[in-house]
Amino acid sequence: MSLEFAYYPGCAAKQVQKEADWAARAVCKELGIGLHAMPRSTCCGAVSLRESKPAFSLAVAARILSEAEAQKRHLVTICNTCLQTLSHANHRFKNEPEILEKINGVLKQAGVRPYEATIKVFHLLWVITDQFDQAVLRGKIKRPLNGLKVASFYGCHNLRPEDIYDSKAGDHADHLDRLVTLLGGKPVAFEGWNRCCGFHVMLSDPLEMRSMVATNCLNAKESGAQMMISPCTLCDMALNAYQGVAERTLGQEIDMPEVNFAQLLGLSLGLDAKSLGMDRLHVSAQPVLSAHGVI
């Protein structure tokens, strides 16, 4: 399979978690993985649109998938929620031809190319761990993690429901742990590795969201982790940007550095920390990374 993809970073990576996008692009450039822009793509609509206006949600997803298909490339994203939304739609299009026909009728009215349901949807993490030659990747490591204890927070939207994905790992996923091991780190198992980060109740129940952030981070810390990594821009936002808010709300110190997986991989590849957006983190990872010779 050619490692050339239509790249769909998602809204968060364009506006808030820009460092995840920068790191993804830098890592792929270093590894020779092609990420091709999708200039006409819009927000995926996320879960809220799928629940409130399911037909509209499918049309939005078909429009995005069609743009990737027009490039004759599979689609890759760095957001778990975008991954779930587009994978859910793609699964329906491939298994319910009558739905695809109806949605293509909507696209036709809007002057949009019909979607033929020929492409797959991947997470960039899956591409790097499952499709890229791991021996080659290991040979490119310039700054190994030297035993850094890393808790992999997978989140939920890249795992469930398992049958919609073009990676069948589901709740048995080990992509992040395999990457940490390859980079010379020590994966740390902890309760909550596959739970929601809290982002999706940020507005509807902010106190619960902050409690979820604190619980996830403290579980990792109490299990011996020195750092957390995530494959998702929304998880990054919750666990890093809102960690301080969670501390103040609960009156308890957390102090758990969290970075996007592409940032940690980029550092190990020897890429410049600032170009990976490491200076944008709300909880600095500098001390622990310096102690292990990664920065």
How does this model look, in words?
- By secondary structure, the chain is an alpha/beta fold.
- The protein has two domains: 4-123, Glutathione S-transferase Yfyf (Class Pi), Chain A, domain 2 (Up-down Bundle), CATH 1.20.1050.140; 134-291, Rossmann fold, CATH 3.40.50.
- The protein contains 14 helices and eight strands.
- It has helices at 11-15, 18-31, 46-52, 54-70, 80-95, 97-109, 124-131, 134-139, 175-182, 206-222, 233-241, 243-250, 261-268, 286-291, and strands spanning 4-8, 34-36, 74-77, 121-123, 149-152, 186-188, 227-230, 258-260.
- The strands form two sheets. It has a four-stranded parallel beta sheet, with helices on both faces. A four-stranded parallel beta sheet has the order 6-5-7-8, with helices on both faces.
- Strand 5, helix 9 and strand 6 (186-188) form a beta-alpha-beta unit.
- Helix 4 (54-70) crosses helix 6 (97-109) and helix 5 (80-95) crosses helix 6.
- The longest helix is centred in the N-terminal third of the chain and has 17 residues, at 54-70.
- The radius of gyration is 19 Å and the shape is globular.
- The two termini are 34 Å apart.
- The model has no long low-confidence stretch (mean pLDDT 95).
Describe this structure in a few short sentences.
The chain has 295 residues and is an alpha/beta fold. The protein has helices spanning 11-15, 18-31, 46-52, 54-70, 80-95, 97-109, 124-131, 134-139, 175-182, 206-222, 233-241, 243-250, 261-268, 286-291, and strands at residues 4-8, 34-36, 74-77, 121-123, 149-152, 186-188, 227-230, 258-260.
